[in-house]
Amino acid sequence: MLLTNSIPSAQSLLIFEVAARHLNFTAAARELGSTQSSVSQQMRGLETKLELQLFERVYRGVALTDTGKQLYEAVESGFQQMANCLEQLQKTRPRLYINVATDFAFAAFWLLPRLPRFRELHPEVEVRIVSSQHQLDHTMPDTDISIVFAKGKPNNLHAHLLCTGDVFPICSPALLKQYGPVESHKKLASLPLLKLGDYTNQGWLDWRGFFNQRRSLVRPSEPVLSFNNYTLLVQAAIAGQGVGLGWGNLVDDLVDSGVLTALRSFSLDSQWGYYLVEVNAKHVLPAKQHFVDWLLTQ
Asked: In this predicted model, what pLDDT tens digit does every residue of 83-100 receive, in sequence order?
């Protein structure tokens, strides 16, 4: 005998489970988003199909007959087994994820503020960010995408330019108010300066290089604080501890919001930018392609 001929519909059994659990058709209808009359009609239809009395109508509700109790135990157990099975199957489902390698600065100031937009579009994709202040190794195992800081397109790599930006001094509004207007290299050089560690081989300018590229004969004072992490340098500038060098593509949002002040009259074209590098361009994964397509629209 076919099961479809001997077993009621899944919908009617689901409604029965809810009604039997609440012992009240009105409460069952509320959970199901239905009406009391609809639930009552469904249960009458189920009893007719089975030729069994499942409920007894009592004051302010219903009670299960002995037959109804037996059916409820079987239905409740069956639905619970299905729920447990589906939960286990979903845990074994292959998870979509991508590994993205970049530096601390780009991750903190550019990528993370924009990442919620990607998650809204692709909630099924997990983005795993691996960050470092040092030069990235594109051959790192399991890396899908690298976002690198470079002067021109990286050689022998499948790369796309994401953003470029000028370099200019940044400080807190309070510090600028304290030291007055800054209108000359000499005045700038006399301010408390914040320095990023020696990463000149990666394109990160220090103050001496900045003044040299602006063709100034002024020599900057010794930095009052030095950091090996650009994120910390920016936090120190926000806290009013000195003047740092801001990279436009990273600190523009902080300047626009008024958290930082940009001394743009001292801007310098860095000729450096961030590039999206597909580590293994021939290895096409849906999650990676979603992320690449999204990044290129930002």
From this structure: 999 888 866 666 588 899
Beta-bridge partners for 247: 167
Residue 94 and residue 83: Cα distance in Å, rounded? 19
87 sits in which H/E element: helix 66-91
Q: What is the pLDDT of residues 259-285, one digit of tens each?
A: 999 999 999 988 888 999 887 766 777
The rounded distance, in Å, linking the Cα atoms of 119 and 125 is: 7
Pairing of strands 96-102, 125-131: parallel
* Distance in angstroms (rounded) separating the CA atoms of residues 67 and 184: 93
Query: What letter represents residue 84's amino acid?
Result: N
Contact predicate 105/250, CB 8 Å: yes
Domains of the chain, start order: 3-91 (1.10.10.10), 98-278 (3.40.190.290)
* Lowest-confidence pick of 62-76, 146-160, 166-180: 146-160
Tell which wins on pLDDT, 208 or 197. Answer: 208
